[in-house]
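Chain A, query sequence.
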Amino acid sequence: MYEVFADLHVHIGRSENGKPIKITGARSLNFANIAKECVEKKGINLVGIIDCASPYVIEDIENFLKNGEAYELEKGGIIYKDQVCIILGSEIETAEINDEGKTGSAHNLCYFPHLADIKAFSNEMSHHIKNITLSSQRCDMSAYDLIDIVKKYNGILVPAHCFTPYKSFYGNCTKSLKRIFKEKFDDIYAIELGLSSDTFLADEISELENKTFLTNSDAHSLPRIAREYNKMELEDINFEEFVKVLKREDGRKILKNYGLDPKLGKYHRTYCEVCGKRISGNAPVTKCDTCDSKNITMGVYDRIEIIKDKPKTNSPDFRPEYVYQIPLSFIPGLGTKSIEKLLNKFGTEMTVLHKLSKDDIEAVMGEKIAKNIISSRTGKMNILAGGGGNYGKVEL
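Chain A, predicted structure.
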């Protein structure tokens, strides 16, 4: 057994020849660049790229495998430079009937072991999606039906960013995942928390007490990879081992979840669409405390206050430690050039965030930046909560 860092939700902005995949993703965010970023700068050993059902990306993967630096594994996944295993995934939007009988939308992360599996999945989903080349497209079915197609091609399904007000199950579709998946609920081994929630909030919902929690970046640019990530214990980096981690089988498990303090997330607190302000009153906030408007975007914290059914102190024994992690790009005083200087000297972001002493950092960057990095590592920074699509801010 050995320990690895994993980020299982990274988008592709453009294909190698410039075709759009994730419209809001950076142009530099392609399959090959993600692999290189994980090895050279981030120190990520297991990465889930979740736009691999696009025919444009499938073509890129086939070309990537021809260059001799990467190869497919019998147990699933693609190994690059013997340092990172790429898990092929697809983010699919499903149509759900919400608790009020209206149509809501939810995102699902679908992971597959082999290129042949995701190619077959892509072909079938092209009959249910208007444009299979683009990321996170709406399909004409519920996740209840989608999971059968995913399993048909040897895949697994993980509900994505479960609590965000847009495109998530708890955020705008239901108070209960079990209501959506019914008798198939046991085939959901894990959920993704999302940037605006954490273990302590999610563990207030009793139906999640036997599910594994994932903390992933949902990266739309290369620097955002590993702003949230997981530390896993497994025997090797491949798809089969990844699934065992989610199932907590044979000693495989998540050792730690590293995530933003939920207050840094874009949707942590409720936001007034009329006043354009985050509402920081006692949760749950259901109307603006300034203009009295009910035209609001419900925050994750406020939504969980509505649907929770147990105290947050009752986490299951297997639940790993949740470590509040502030990525280098969020730390005051660290711009692009400063981050590059750190990485050129010390290797990867994981090394800077986890291994270096204050003296190591100070020798390269000076006392002020060294102090800020150590303060972020030890949770000694104040945070102004985010909401309404605006990230929270770290304050000295």
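The mean pLDDT is 92. The CA atoms of residues 169 and 177 lie 7 Å apart.
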